[in-house]
Amino acid sequence: MSRVRLFSAAFLLVAATGAQASSFVVTTDTIVRALDASSNATSKISSSFHDDKIVLAARDDAASFVASEGEIRGVKLQGALQHIREVAPSLQASDAQLAQAILAI
Asked: The whole model's pTM is what?
């Protein structure tokens, strides 16, 4: 009887480890996809607007926005965000992603 319990415990341990590993892989894949989407949006913005005067003028406001985690929204940043969305209406990026892209220019 003790061998059966030992094998059962070993089997349960192996099964639990496999479930945790697959959960980790799914979570990791989700995070990587989200970061990749954010990175793609940032690179598209920074390459498209690297010589745009409105966007370049908003760099200080973008830095304040990012540093304050969205609490500080300067007038120049608001104008740049509106300008970017008018020029590239198909771009699906949050204000935080746009602010980070402006800083990357």
From this structure: 0.55
105 is written with which tokens? 């220019």
Domain that holds residue 24: 2-104
d(CA 40, CA 90): 14
User: Could you read off the pLDDT of 34-69 as tens digits, one per residue?
Assistant: 555 555 555 555 556 777 899 899 999 999 999 999
Q: How many domains does the chain have?
A: 1
In this structure, are residues 59 and 105 in contact, taking their beta carbons and an 8 Å threshold?
Answer: yes
Separation between Cα atoms, residue 84 and residue 80, nearest integer Å: 6
Contacts 24+ apart (CB under 8 A), 6-11: none
